[in-house]
Write a structure and sequence with these properties.
The chain is of the alpha+beta class and about 180 residues long. It has four helices and nine strands; from the N terminus they run E-E-E-H-H-E-E-H-E-H-E-E-E. It folds into two domains: about 120 residues, Alpha-1-antitrypsin, domain 1; about 45 residues, no CATH class.
Amino acid sequence: MMCQKANFNYIYISEAKTQVVELPYAGKTLSMIVLLPDEDVDLSVVENNLTFEKFLDWTEAASLQNIEVKVFIPRFKLQGDYIMESVLQHLGMVDVFQQGQADLSAMSTETDLCLSKFVHKSILEVNEEGTEAVARSVILDVDDCFSYLPYFNADHPFLFFIRHNETNTLLFCGRFSSP
């Protein structure tokens, strides 16, 4: 577990029994937002009740308090490969996968091209270097992490989101189930 003490945007959502903390990346263009249910609340309860509208309400600047918080979060790396053909076809991009139907002339002078496969690879790594940039703080001694400031202890399953702050667009989202 990593431990940091800094001012973060933070709120406790009593209706969901969930803490929310925003960890801004350097430059504040992106943020990692973590939703941590109380220890006695199963993560699936939060997931099943979470809507995009609730997420926006909980994470809007007017809802969050910028206060000093001690944040404990595990180091982790998540990686996945996703086959995207069915997703794109469901969105109406059918011709691009059919020889003779695809129009890829803006990408190549070759004719009769089509896509045979579309794979998306995602990697998210949270470590001391990334978290220092996120929090703009220092790694503290373990003894410093146990004083009387409010704390956010992600030692049980949580949800995380990477957000582009200017457009409020979610770029990544995931569930960390085994800290």
